[in-house]
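User: Hi! I'm working on a homework problem where we have to compare a predicted structure to a textbook description. Could you give me the structure for the chain below?
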Amino acid sequence: MKKKIGLFIVFLLLTSCGGEKKVVSNENKCNVRIIPPSEDFESFYKTIDSSDFFKNELANFNNINNGIFYYERHDGIENGGFFIVNIDNNYSGKSKSLTFYKDKNFSIEDKKKLNETLKLLKEEDYFQSCSGDQGHMTVYLLIIKSNNKKVQYFSFTGFPSQVKIADDNFKLTQEIFEIIYYNSHKK
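Assistant: Happy to help. Predicted structure tokens:
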């Protein structure tokens, strides 16, 4: 219940932020907002999980120069799962939760696609919200650090591919999300 209240507060704060640029999508009743750099985006998503495990994984990721942090938590499940990629260490991936840990390897094609996409990515923060019945709530957090740039994506009401927009940087973020999502769930 505390987490749902916290997420609702995050939703209110992010949707009421003045000056943000709406990226737009009427498909699936979803929209994406680019959050201006003046907002403290990290303070919004740090409330999604108050566990020490989440805080420690986020702190460990902050020690990586170039990497990808993916967090996913489904409604009704106490803690979420992580997929953390260290780009500087040949794209080494680790899938983990409180009860699970597995090293993951990327295909040559995925490494190549990620490498090309990361070069084009611009620094931005995205918040996605969807109205209407989404079935159940799933929190998605994606943080990409590459070449002194940081892209952050946060949603608890929709999957990034639900949004079809003309913003090239968000499309690149979607491509990275899809590769990371697939590899995080790959056996």
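For your comparison, note the following. The two ends are 32 Å apart (CA to CA). Confidence is low (pLDDT under 50) at residues 4-19. Good luck with the assignment!
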